[in-house]
Amino acid sequence: MRALLKRGEGSSFELQECPDPHPGPEDVIVRVHAVGVCGTDEHILHDVYPHADPLIPGHEFVGEIVSLGEQVQGWREGERVVSELHTGACLQCARCRSGNPQICPHKRALGTWTDGAYAELVRVPAWLLHHAPPGVDNPHSTLIEPAACALHGILERGTLNPDESVLIVGHGPIGLLSAQVAAANGASFVAVSGTSRRGTLRLEAARSMGFAVIDSTTDDFDDRVTDLTGGDGFDLAIETAGTDLALAQCIAAVHSGGRVTVLGLSGQPEVRFPWDTALVKDLDLTFSFSSKASSWEQVIGLATDHRIGEESMITHVLDLEDWREGYDAIEHGQAVKVVLRP
Predict the structure, then answer these.
(1) Largest CA distance in the chain
(2) Residue 146's Cα: distance from chain center in Å?
(3) 204-221 residue pLDDT tens
(4) Beta-bridge mates of residue 16
(5) Which of 73, 149, 212, 216 is spaced 20 to 30 A from 242 at the CA atom?
(6) 3-state secondary structure of 298
(7) How far is residue 192's CA from residue 202's CA, in Å, rounded to a whole number?
(8) For residues 82 and 145, is the Cβ–Cβ distance under 8 A?
(9) Bridge partners of 6?
(10) Is 337 exposed, middle or buried (0-12, 13-18, 19+ CB in 10 A)?
């Protein structure tokens, strides 16, 4: 099969002929129809996120089952599927037994520690599969995984109550999906904050989706928050950028007794933190990583009802060999979401 392979530290992705995967007893083989480019994939390319060497990356995918292990039940060839990432989760520890395999200490995530979906074929444990949302095309079906991460943080780790105001800090795909998830689950008002330093495409996408926008490059952030909330501050802020500035903005933007949920990976060993401000404001601060089965089922329902997955999310659909074009577009602020077709 054709695949993008990273051979080791310091190497780039290379389009290679790689051996076809074969299913273990409880696995399926999926022919990949489309795979989204995630920020984690970019971090893997530049060796700023831990990963296996060598590795086929990619984890935001949709495809069709082409073969099944002899012990697989409940699935059949030809079914269109998406998949969670928790390969290697033991299903025996306290985290797994509580329904949280995404934080199992034995997990070896697909596309990070086991070969992923930047390939024509990918092997997946059958227990991780979900039916792809009916009526949603392949490029937009790749949004299920990042949207599940957003929903897990907003509804399952954090708590969005009906009619609350929400600020999303970070205007990348996770930020835009977080805004859609919040709006679809009862938020009274949603704003998205991001920088126009590398262009306005993503802020324009947020605006086209009906969200208020804060351009942290040209706007005075505090004044804009005051204007949007009448001086009260937001009930909930979601950090998706992975920077200390974004976290500080979240803490500044919520009212006393408000809540902040952190979704963004920083890639840094430590970040600056406005400790006293968070303490004096009596804030709840929650960190959220990955997603679990319940997140996926809720997101698939939202996608099926076309309540998430706006058309403007997908700006580039490219063949696998054109991956550099997509990565360059992301780097230069010319893409919202890039999808590859193996």
Answers:
(1) 62
(2) 3
(3) 999 999 999 999 999 999
(4) 3
(5) 212
(6) helix
(7) 10
(8) yes
(9) 13, 55
(10) buried
Total residues found in the chain within this entry: 342
Distance CA 245, CA 178 (A): 19
State both tokens at 251: 């803490």
Cβ neighbours of residue 207 closer than 8 Å, sequence gap 6 or more: 213
Give 67-108 pLDDT, tens digit per residue.
Answer: 999 999 999 999 999 999 999 999 999 999 999 999 999 999
* Token pair 């929650």 in the structure block, residue: 286
Place of tokens 């227990």: 127
Number of Cβ within 10 Å of residue 299's Cβ equals 30
**Percentage above 90 pLDDT, the chain:** 97
* Other beta carbons within 10 Å of 226: 14
Amino acid at 277: T
Q: Which two tokens stand for residue 292?
A: 């679990």
Q: Which two tokens stand for residue 5?
A: 């392979």
Strand order of the β-sheet with 254-262 is 212-215, 189-194, 165-169, 234-239, 254-262, 284-287
Q: For residue range 12-37, list pLDDT tens digits in order.
A: 999 999 999 999 999 999 999 999 99
Reference 187, options 171, 216, 211, 205; nearest CA is 211
Tell me the three state secondary structure of residue 233.
Answer: coil
Q: Which two tokens stand for residue 216?
A: 């942290």
Q: Are strands 254-262 and 284-287 parallel, antiparallel or unpaired?
A: parallel
Spatial distance between the Cα atoms of 32 and 125, rounded to a whole number of angstroms: 15
Residue 166 dihedral angles phi and psi, to the nearest 5°? -130, 135
Q: What is the pLDDT of residue 267?
A: 83
Closest to 213 (Cα-Cα) out of 232, 194, 235, 185: 194
Do the Cβ atoms of 236 and 179 come closer than 8 Å? no
